[in-house]
Amino acid sequence: MGRIKKGILGGFSGKVGSVVGASWRGIDYMRGLPRKSTKAATAAQLAQQNKMALFRGFLLGVDDIIETCFQNIGKHTRMNDALSYNMLNSIEGTYPEQSINFKQLLFSKGELRGAWSPKAISNESNAIDFSWENGNLMPLCSAEDRVILVVYDPVQNHFCKLKKAALRADKMARIILPKSSKGHLVHCYISFYSENRNLASTNEYIGQVVVA
C-alpha cells in the first residue's frame, strides 16, 4: 500500500497497483514495477547462475579470512571481489557439469611473499603437519608474519581453519581436525598475514592429504 506524505498533491511512497513511489535527495518520483522476463535463460546465463550457486555459500566458510586477507582489488566488498575472482578463475568443467577447481581457489590475495616448498603430511591421528622454507627474510617476508592454515574436507563440506598457527620463522605448524575427518582426502592451503602492516599473501594450494 502506498502512503501520501504531503497531501493529495504531494509525492507518495510504496506501491500502488503497478507503480512504486519513492524519494531520492528530496525529489519525489514514480517508477513502474519490473516485468518478469518470458525469455528462457541462455546456456551462458545458466552457467553463470550455477557458478554463483557453487561459490556463494561455499566462500562463507572462509569469510573471516576473506574480510581480512583478500586485498589489492577493492572494486567492491572483499567478499564480492573474492566471489567474482573465483567465479572467473576457479571453475572447471562446462555447465551443467561445473565444479570448483580447488587448486585455483583463492581466499587470500596480497603483496606478502608466500612460502618456499610448502608441504603437508598427516602421520598422527587427526593432525596435519605443515612445513615450509622462507628464503631471505625482508619487509614482505618477515619472520613475524602470522601463518594461516586452511583445510577443506569435501566429504563433510567443512573448512577447518587456524589463523594464528605459527610465525613464518617457525617453518612448521600443526592443525587438528575433527575426529570425523579421519581417513578423508582433504585439500590443504597455507598463507601469511602481517598483523602490524595489515598485509596478506596470496594463499598457496599444497595438495591433498589423507587424514590419519
Tell me the overall shape: globular
Describe the main β-sheet briefly.
5 strands, antiparallel
Proportion of residues in extended strands:
25-35%
Gap between N and C termini, in Å? 61 Å
Give the helix level as a range of percent. Answer: 10-25%
In the CATH hierarchy, the third-tier topology of the largest domain is known as Immunoglobulin-like
Characterize the structure shown:
With 212 residues, this protein is an alpha+beta fold. It folds into 3 domains: 3-32, no CATH class; 41-109, no CATH class; 113-212, Sandwich (Immunoglobulin-like), CATH 2.60.40.10. 17% of the residues lie in helices and 34% in strands. It is built from 3 helices and 14 strands. The chain has helices at 43-58, 63-69, 78-89; strands spanning 3-4, 12-16, 19-24, 27-32, 91-92, 99-100, 116-121, 127-133, 146-153, 158-162, 172-176, 185-194, 199-200, 204-210. Strands 9, 10, 12, 13 and 14 form a 5-stranded antiparallel sheet that branches. A 4-stranded antiparallel sheet has the order 1-2-3-4, with no helix packed on it. The longest helix has 16 residues, at 43-58. The radius of gyration is 24 Å and the shape is globular. It starts with a strand and ends with a strand.
